[in-house]
Every structure is written in C-alpha cells, then in structure tokens.
C-alpha cells in the first residue's frame, strides 16, 4: 500500500495530476488494490462531473482494460494489435489517446501519461534512463506481469508513476504520472545504475578505442550522466563490452578449427594445427594446444635466416591463461624473423615436446631434415630434453643474461662479479675467457663450479662460427 492508494482514498483529485488526452480525461487512480479498478472507475465518474459522456467511456476503457480482458474469456486470444486499431472498437481509443514513445536522446527524455511502449523491457529501459537523467532513485510499490507502480525513493516525495499492460498483451502504457520532486535533491550515486546500463551507454566509446582507460570512462560517465560510479565497476564494464564487441573467449576458442583451415586454404604452405583433449567422457572437445606457422614464415626462415632459433614462453593474461611459445630466427639484416608460434596450457617438457615435434614436422614438410640447429633460450624446464629428442644434433645456447640472474639468486653479485661475468660471456677466445674465469674463482670458487655445471653454451668463444651469429642473450626473442 503506497502513496497512490492514500491519495485516491483521500479523493484528492488535484494532488493526483489529471491529464487531458485527446479523448478528454484520465488518469491516475488508486490501482494498487487488485480489485479496486471498478470502484475507481465509478469514483471518477461521479467525481468528474464536468466530463462529457464520450470522455466517460474513455475513462472506462482505460481503467477496466485488464478486468474486462479477464471477463472476456478466450475470444481475446484471436485479437491482434491491428484488430485493436480498426477504428471501430472502444478499445481503439486506448491507442489513439496515447502516443507511441519515440526514442529521445539522453538528457531530453520526457514522460507523460498515455505514452505507449512496445513492451515491458522498453518501458523499463526508458524509465531507468529518465530516473538517471533526473537524478532520483526508485522504490517499487508493485511490479507484476500486468502492472508496474513505482515512487520516488525519497521518503515524503509524492512523485510516482504507474504503467500497465495494454489489450494487445505486449505494449505498456503509462497510466499515471503524479506529483513532483520538491526537496529530493540530485542523487550522485544512483543505485538504479547497473553494469548492464553502463555497458549499453559506453559501448560506442569502448568500440572506438578498446584500450580506453577506465578512468576516462569514469570521467565520461560523470560528465555526461552526472553520476558517480566506483572505478572498479568500469573494469567489469570494459570486459563485458569487449565480449559484446569481439564475442567471448570461449566463442573464439570454438572458432579456432575454422581459423586453422582458413589459414591453410588462403596461405598455401602454412602449418596450422589445433590439438584437443581426448577425454572420452567429454561430449565437447576441449582445447589443448595449437601450433601455427605461415608459409612465408617457414620458407623465409629456411631460405634467408641464420641457422639459429630463439625460443621462449610468455604467460598469457586472458581469461583462460596458458603459455604462448614462439620460435624466432635472425635474418641477414640481423632483424628478428618470427618462424612459428603456439599456445599450450603449461610450460612443461610435454608442452615443449609438442612444440619441437611440430617444428620438426614443419621443416620436414618443406624438405629440410637438418637437425643440427642452434637453439637459444633461457634455462626453462623441459626445453633441453625436448630439443634433443627432436633435433638430436642440436647445439644449445643459454641466455647469458638469465644465467647471470641465476648466479645473482645464488648469492654471487656485485660490481666486480658482474664485470668479470660480462668479460667471460663476451670473450671471443679461450684466453680472455680463462683469465676471466680465474678471477671469478678468486672471487668465489663456488661461482666457477656453478658456471661449469651449465651444459649450454653461454660464452662467445664456444660458439660455432658457421652459425654466423654471436647472440648470447635471448633479448631478441623477448
Ligand atoms: Zn522525489
């Protein structure tokens, strides 16, 4: 029981704003009570002594529509929206008195009695925009499949709106709009603002710039809609908007097999493989790993690059995480040249084996059975075994920068050690290397012992000149 009833029962027709439509009358009656409609009808007839007989029938149409429907039984189901507008029925005037809501830009939305909306959703969307525009919150008095009655959330404010279902059973019309906000003030933080609403409003901005900072979105919301929203909500808004724009991550994974086929169709010589988990209990196959190399990449590498392959893994930050593995070469101009890439679930020997196996298959398909490539990487788990399993005669270099970091973690650091390590790593002949190592032994014999355990090449004097490449770090891969 809310304000509507109390006003109606007081019979205060002035407080309840009366609207004169084309047909003459109507409005706001206390419809809060399920069975109050007929009595309201009678009350308005007797109260409004100045309405003529045509108006009275209109009033009747408006107010009893739902009850009338119920009593009409099944024959109403044969009626369509058009049937209601043939110009002859009394019900027709329902629609003629009102006007269909036409979308208005935010900031100039006006509501009035007998404004008709295509359906409940459309009405609620406009009402939400209107409340945010006017800066007040809502308190629901009644909301069911037929009627919707809300008042201003501020205690004591007499603003209220009532809408109900029309005879076509879909469209909604505002039946009454009462009172006004006198001392409500403007809500800066409006609980009616939802993530979904923000996504709808900010979608064009996010679509124009997917990297738009959340603080910019916050500022735009403040300026355009004059509302305050917590910054963290905009992260969610951005993520949801991206899903609307790009489709979700899961949808993208489902498209991978088609993507792979498309690559092979449109780029002859390309290698594209998607691997799925073979769990017999699974109805839907689950993505496991993928490996891609475009025709131009593998041929370009075999024909124009130095025989050295840099490999590295990078953690992916998307919803499903995973590791991006990549293999890069260096061309004649010392520029980096992407050879192949893949996505796997974890950085493990199994994953590296998958990657190396496909790399070997890729080369073999191009007629290259060479297995003495030089691989450079940091000392990641599983890489060494996977490389030698697929390329038995491969040479391994490890990144000197990563090796130095390992030393630092082992307790050997400082300006002197850094300098000596640098000399040893960049030594082009054994003499310089041995001198540097002697000094490192003087610094700490354990450091030399540790460096001697490194089976991969890390000092330039160890490198094979035939590789024509003296990179001793994986900087170019990263
Ligand atoms: Zn108010």
UniProtKB/TrEMBL annotation:
Residues 115-169 form the Transposase MuDR plant domain. Residues 309-406 form the MULE transposase domain. The lineage of its organism: Eukaryota, Viridiplantae, Streptophyta, Embryophyta, Tracheophyta. This is MULE transposase domain-containing protein. Residues 1-57 are annotated as: Disordered. Residues 29-57 have a biased composition (Acidic residues). It comes from Spinacia oleracea. It holds the Pfam family MULE.
